[in-house]
Design goal:
Elements (H helix, E strand, L loop, with lengths): L1 H15 L18 H7 L14 H10 L3 H16 L2 H17 L3 H14 L3 H16 L4 H21 L4 H14 L3 H14 L4 H13 L3 H14 L3 H13 L3 H15 L2 H15 L1
Helix pairs in contact: 1-13, 2-10, 4-5, 5-6, 6-7, 7-8, 7-9, 8-9, 9-10, 10-11, 11-12, 12-13, 13-14, 14-15
């Protein structure tokens, strides 16, 4: 009964926090052990995908369906200009196209343009932003085939970035998350993330993702420690919400209520407010 409750509560987290740090946190598997070894074990419960390629035209076609016809027409016009251009002009138009996709919140489509920019102007920063957009794309996509392809493109981009700066923590974090979230080599991802927090104990992204992977395997005390570290750096509504969920799963009701309240105050989102109010009422009884 308790485990079923955990599945439901954590599943709601992913639904309510779309666009934040979305992961499929269903089918949790309780792991035994403590410390880094146990934290690495949590990676084995992550989704795994095999090798996959992805078609840019298919991704952009879907993205166009998500925006207005006028905006889609503007983007198609710019796409035609990109195809007919070359050299520096083509790169400049790719940057404009990437920005257009960013403006309409379509990261997967934007990622392909950022990737082309990085190929033309190869450096750490350009490959990092390409990797980050592919990451946002796969984290907000429900098609497993598309997700697998985006994960692979993210991994490639982060590796390209690390070729310019082998110590780049942002690229290591993105690469670690990609390995855990969408490959058959999750342990390598957890090792990367643990390496990041060893070098930078307050690293927000690495701690956030390690916390979520700990939740995924039912290691809620581990998750609490990670989310508290995140909150010390940046008290976001999603960090407070996941902290509240972790407290609840450990039966620490007063702490859960306080954390839920904090998430509600910071998010100021009606749907989340309604859920949190019901949750607090349930925990108060």
């Amino acid at each position: 009964m308790m485990k079923s409750k955990q599945y439901i509560v954590i599943g709601l987290v992913a639904i309510l926090m779309v666009g934040l740090y979305s992961l499929d946190i269903k089918g949790l598997v309780k792991q035994e052990g403590e410390g880094e070894d146990a934290e690495m074990q949590s990676a084995t419960t992550a989704n795994t995908q095999g090798d996959a390629t992805i078609n840019e035209a298919t991704v952009t076609a879907v993205s166009k369906q998500m925006i207005s016809a006028n905006l889609a027409a503007d983007i198609e016009k710019l796409e035609k200009e990109v195809k007919s251009a070359d050299g520096a002009k083509k790169v400049e138009l790719q940057k404009q196209l990437a920005k257009k996709w960013d403006d309409v919140n379509q990261p997967a489509a934007a990622a392909f343009s950022y990737e082309e920019v990085a190929k033309a102007e190869a450096n750490y920063a350009n490959w990092l932003i390409a990797g980050n957009r592919f990451t946002e794309g796969y984290q907000n996509n429900t098609d497993s085939t598309v997700t697998a392809g985006l994960v692979n493109r993210a991994i490639n981009a982060y590796n390209k970035a690390l070729a310019f700066d082998a110590d780049g923590l942002d690229a290591k974090t993105g690469l670690g998350v990609a390995y855990v979230s969408g490959t058959q080599n999750p342990m390598q991802g957890i090792q990367l993330l643990l390496g990041v927090v060893k070098e930078d104990p307050k690293n927000e992204k690495a701690n956030m993702n390690l916390g979520m992977f700990s939740m995924k395997s039912g290691q809620f005390q581990k998750a609490i420690d990670r989310f508290k570290t995140v909150i010390d750096v940046k008290p976001t509504p999603e960090a407070w919400f996941y902290l509240a969920t972790s407290y609840e799963n450990l039966g620490q009701k007063p702490e859960a209520i306080l954390a839920y309240q904090k998430s509600k105050e910071l998010a100021a989102d009606p749907s989340l407010t309604g859920f949190v109010d019901r949750k607090i009422k349930e925990l108060s009884n």
